[in-house]
Automatic annotation (TrEMBL):
Taxonomic source organism: Parnassius mnemosyne
Protein name, entry field: DDE Tnp4 domain-containing protein
Domain (DDE Tnp4) ranges: 60-212
Annotated localization: Nucleus
Keywords of the record: Hydrolase, Metal-binding, Nuclease, Nucleus
Keyword Nucleus: yes
A GO MF label: metal ion binding
């Protein structure tokens, strides 16, 4: 029978589909960080072929997805832009595929804290004989495996050229968020998910699974308009420069300096 669908029916269908897409075997199948050297090398090669930056296995950032005010622990979700949100961490590859996502933290949680608690961080720190980098903004602490911009770099200096390239490659994560939210517009910060945080997190994960399915199938999605991009930028919480322990920071600086020197030799 043609006609409008009852809200209860829509809610039930949404819950069933979301639950199905959050099944552990589906999440493992469709959102998968590279687990062995061969898989990492494939991702590294694609980044290098596109941008000329070696050893990159992904770009990382967080994006706020607005939710209604939770009935419990409201303070965990109230961000510095004065709305309630899930602060969603995403890692992507050069094809805009999402290889890792965490939608379990409230908007009051800083990006750097989410990364410190992430199992991928421990995974990367375990590499002793392989060079791998994630690219992040200055909200992340510089580490041997996390390449961030050089503060106050002089334009056209080696550090300035590195910053230009690092930002150009890191735009991959911004494009990933743009395609994800352009396709699944309930995730736009200008809107709100009218569900409890746990359900909202599952909806975010479900959208990420569907995003990857579409990318692999070659289905193009509508990207955000410039006006929508601007709206997203104004609603996102500015990063705070991450604190860093001296020993780990020094190791990160040595790794970044080595990368900058390599880029200069290959100019």
């Amino acid at each position: 029978m043609d006609g409008p669908m009852a809200q209860q029916t829509v809610s039930r269908c949404l819950q069933e589909v979301t639950t199905a897409l959050n099944a552990p075997h589906l999440l493992r199948k469709h959102i998968r960080f590279p687990q062995n050297r061969n898989e990492r090398n494939l991702i590294k090669q694609k980044f290098y072929d596109k941008y000329g930056l070696p050893a990159v296995v992904g770009c990382i950032d967080c994006s706020h997805v607005a939710i209604v005010r939770p009935s419990e622990h409201e303070e965990r979700y109230f961000n510095r832009k004065h709305f309630h949100s899930i602060n969603t961490q995403v890692i992507c590859d050069s094809d805009l595929l999402i290889t890792n996502v965490d939608a379990s933290y409230g908007g009051a949680t800083h990006d750097a804290y989410i990364w410190r608690e992430c199992e991928i961080r421990n995974h990367l720190e375990g590499f002793q004989d392989e060079t791998v980098y994630l690219l992040g903004d200055s909200g992340y602490a510089l580490r041997e495996h996390m390449m961030t911009p050089v503060d106050n770099a002089v334009e056209n200096s080696p550090e300035g050229r590195y910053n230009y390239l690092q930002k150009r490659v890191r735009c991959t994560i911004e494009r990933t968020f743009g395609v994800l939210k352009g396709r699944w517009r309930c995730l736009l910060a200008a809107r709100e998910l009218h569900y409890c945080p746990e359900t909202a997190g599952k909806i975010i994960l479900a959208c990420c699974v569907l995003h990857n399915m579409c990318i692999r199938a070659g289905i193009e999605g509508p990207e955000l308009t410039e006006e929508e991009h601007q709206s997203e930028r104004t609603r996102q919480v500015p990063f705070e420069t991450a604190a860093s322990s001296t020993q780990a920071l020094q190791a990160g600086r040595r790794a970044r300096n080595s990368l900058i020197q390599m880029l200069e030799r290959n100019r």
